[in-house]
Every structure is written in C-alpha cells, then in structure tokens.
Amino acid sequence: MTLKHYLFTPIPNPSPQGGGEHAEACAGVTRRRVLTAAAGLAGLAASSTAVYAGAIEPQGLVVTRYAPAPANWPAGRKLTITVIADLHAGGPDMLLPHVREVVDKANSLHSDLIVLLGDFTAWYRFPWTRVPDPLWAAELKRLDAPLGVWAILGNHDWWHDLHGVRSALAGVGIPVMQNDAVLLGAPGQKFWLAGLGDQLAHPLGHGRFRGVDDLPGTMAKITSTDPVLLLVHEPDIFPRVPARVALTLAGHTHGGQIRLPVIWPFFVPSKYGARYAYGHVVEEGRQLIVSGGLGTSIIPARLGVPPEILHVTLGG
Length: 316
Ligand SMILES: [Fe+2]
Known about the structure:
By secondary structure, the protein is α/β, with parallel strands linked by helices. The protein has helices at about 5-10, 20-55, 95-110, 135-140, 155-160, 160-170, 215-220, and strands spanning about 60-65, 80-85, 115, 150, 180-185, 190-195, 200-205, 210, 230, 245-250, 280-285, 285-290, 310-315.
C-alpha cells in the first residue's frame, strides 16, 4: 500500500450498534496509519535531502558579494577581488566542466585581482574520478585580472599532492605565496597582498600538526604604510592577525559543508567551531571573510552551503 493510499483512504465509520470495541479497534488502526505515514514522510524527506546534498547542491555555483569597510583601508582606494577557495578538482562533484564554469564565472566578475586560497584537488577515501593537475591548471590559466592571479596552498595540497599542485600552478604562471608579500596597484592606489603558509601542512598524529605559517615573517616583509590584504587557508590564525591587516581572506571550512541544524558546528574543521566557519567576521575592529569554497572533502556532498565564488569590494 502506498503512502498516498495510507494518507487519503477514508477509514470506515464504526457500526451504530455494538460500537464500543469496534471504535477502539478503529482508533488503533488510525494511530498506526498516522505513525506509519509520519515515518514514511520522514524517510522520504531524509532520502530527498540526501539526493539533493549529494547530487544537486554540489553542482551549483553562486557569487557571494561583500563590501566591508575596514578602518585601515583608505576611502577611495577602490579594489575588487574575486576569491576562489577549495576548488578540490575531481569527482564526483568538481569535474572539468564544473571547473570551467567556475573560471568563466570568475572572469565575468571583472575584478581587479583574483586570489586562490588553496586545496586545489579532491581527495576521498573511496575511488573517485581524478582531474589531472595539468587539466585543472589549464583552466585556471584562463583567469584574468589586471592585478594578477595569486595563490596560496591549503592543507590538502600539502598532504596529498604537493609536488603536483606546485608544478601545475608554476606551469601556468600562477605565483604561489608562502609567507610572502607583494606591493600591488597603481601609484596612490597601492596595497600589500600577503600570503601565509599553510597552518596544517605536516600532520604529526593525534590531531596535531606542524604548520609552515610564519605570520611575523610575513608581516616583516611589509615595508610601507599602504594597506594590507592577507590570504590564509585556515581561518584559525585570525585571533593572531595584527590590526595592521585591513582584511583577511580565508577558506578551508567549506562553511561547515553539511549544515544540519544544531549539530553542524561540531564538524567544522576549526578549533573554534562555528566562530570562523563562514562569512564576514569582525573582532576588535579586525575583519575576516571566510569563503564556503567550491568543492568538497571527506564526503562529496553539500547542504546549505552551495559552491561559491566571492566578490569583495574595498574602498568603494
Ligand atoms: Fe583545507
């Protein structure tokens, strides 16, 4: 019998004579039908949600726009930035056509600067479709911005494919910043772009890591009073970022990736839980934007955090 049949088939009226036992029997049948229908609906909702999270949402693409106003970014020094984080190229959800779509969308935003925040390739504990490094890199080569395309590496790059990712990016002329800073922009519009080394680069076991990040060393390379934009893969560095930095851009968390009510903050890959999981964070005047990223890790599913490209406007 179908769920629809259960819900909509009328229950026969009890006989007007000798109705006591019959009425109780009918009440029992009604309760069973309601409980069965409720269980069926819950199962249907769960399976529909699973299909959506596994097959539909990861294939999406949205542009999320921010226009923060950091106190130490001069008014009138307008800069637009496109942010691509956690591409995780590979199957099942970030195959080459999806990577191509990301690049096309990013170029359509016509930003002054494009930054890539690490974790370029997928890695799962089950067989999946790989996108060879030279192929996703060839797509990224099409990215175009007047102030250039700049990258940092993420933890998955270090853990699984460091040589491949470095070689692929070098092969298409995209510079990788590791505890480095460059001065960009026209005279009177200059700003520092700084990129931090990954904070989880070397797993030590038992949930401990040795990073290759050097925040003081990075800041020491900033030699003028021009404003600073800092790229980091993991947002957990943010409490240590000095007020000198106008804006920190981060990825890594995937915004929680599966945002089930109540429980999702416990699965955010951050020692701060939900604090830096997603979006625009302002603490003591310091500003951070965390991208929900594009691909997936651990499981190839997203729920409530569709793949996104950020478009950030400063000084506008
Ligand atoms: Fe990551």
